[in-house]
Amino acid sequence: MSGAGVPLRPEVRDLDGYHSPQVEVEVRLNTNESPLPPPEEWLAELRDGIGRIEFNRYPDRRAGALRAALADFHGVDASRVFCANGSNEVLQCLLVAYGGASRAAAVFEPTYALHRHIASLTGTRVASGWRGPDHRLDLAEVDRVLAEADPVVTFVCSPNNPTGGAETAATVSHLLGRAPGLVVVDEAYGQFAPWSALELAAAGGSGAERLVVVRTFSKTWSMAACRLGYLVADPEVVAACDTVALPYHLDAMTQLAGCLALRHVGAMEQRVALLTEERGRLAAGLGAMPVESWPSDANFILFRPVRRSARAVWERLLASSVLVRDCSTWPGLDECLRVTVGTPEENDRFLAALAAALEEER
Ligand code: PMP
């Protein structure tokens, strides 16, 4: 017999880990990473900077230089910025600080699975509602969930992963008016969208002190390997996250990588512009095929093959060495697949492979 035989915490027992299959393929369009590397200059500066790190010393526990650089980038005070190992760790800190037994977090499905997952891991009850048929938040449903659950944290993913649409400023303002606790707007794909909830934070309207905007370096900054995310929020929320984060959780190389990235904003914006253009081309390509697809404000598109099995199409794409995300077993996403916007060549490969797969599956 194998296994330690020690019972897990009840909150953890029934959970599956969150994993996207990592298969060796030529065209990897399954995890919404940037298909483009960061600039050469950034890499040269990083190599140089790493040579000057005192590796025998712990890193700056507060990541002061990085917070200051991010504060400068967003035009806010550094006391409003908290950084961690990827935005997932930011979300975990928020839930360790504010969630837990006898507290609820609200999510609106279909949405980013980690909001529910991290809430469950931290023993926070998950109160869920459904998005409307267009996958945007349905305000009547939002009000129902908020009234029933009294959530300490309400998650809004905008643009929403995996459906792609951004919520409007009016919707986020509505949430700030109704939600009793923090409104956490996960903007992992924020730079691809036409507006940001940071604008509401800057305007400082009603409820703005409960607004938390979470961002990541994994997508638009082309730095998924670094693991760096952050939030912009009221200093009280930042202090709460600082209290629960492990000492020295953010290593010196990651802090440096983030500081240096912020010197290359123009290059990031160019990558975003290219990918946004490619998103349009992908959407047009999908529009000409027998698939239903949803408008996207992010770097991916959700689609559903018409009268074909999503799993069979996914497998045929894989046989062509094109990997997309199979979302067909996720709540509310029957027969759906999600494709990340790649380089022009990768997108051509995907469109050709999809056309062939749909033909074969007819
Ligand atoms: N939020 C959303 C909506 C995401 O899609 C992702 C990545 N899949 C993350 C957060 C986590 O990003 P990271 O931990 O790499 O910063």
Taken as a percent bin, the fraction of beta residues is: 15-25%
Distance between the termini: 48 Å
Q: Please describe the biggest sheet, giving its number of strands, its sense, and whether it closes into a barrel.
A: 7 strands, mixed
Number of strands: 13
Bound small molecules, deduplicated: 4'-deoxy-4'-aminopyridoxal-5'-phosphate
Strand order of the largest sheet: 2-8-7-6-5-3-4
Number of helices: 13
Low-confidence stretches: none
Overall morphology: globular
Order of helices and strands: HEHHEHEHEHEHEHEEHHHEEHEEEH
**Mean pLDDT metric:** 95
Oligomer: single chain
Question: What report would you give on this structure?
Answer:
The protein is of the alpha/beta class and 362 residues long. Helices cover 40% and strands 15% of the residues. It has helices spanning 10-13, 40-50, 64-74, 86-98, 113-121, 139-149, 169-178, 198-203, 235-244, 252-261, 265-287, 310-319, 344-360, and strands at residues 27-28, 81-84, 104-109, 125-130, 153-157, 182-186, 211-216, 229-232, 291-293, 300-305, 322-323, 325-326, 337-340. Strands 2-8-7-6-5-3-4 form a seven-stranded mixed β-sheet, with helices on both faces. Strands 9-10-13-12 form a four-stranded antiparallel β-sheet, with helices on one face. The protein has a two-stranded parallel sheet with strand order 1-11. It is globular and about 55 Å long. The chain starts with 9 loop residues before the first helix and ends with a helix. The model has no long low-confidence stretch (mean pLDDT 95). The structure holds 4'-deoxy-4'-aminopyridoxal-5'-phosphate. Residues 32, 86-88, 112, 157, 161, 186, 188, 216, 218, 224, 229 line the site of 4'-deoxy-4'-aminopyridoxal-5'-phosphate.
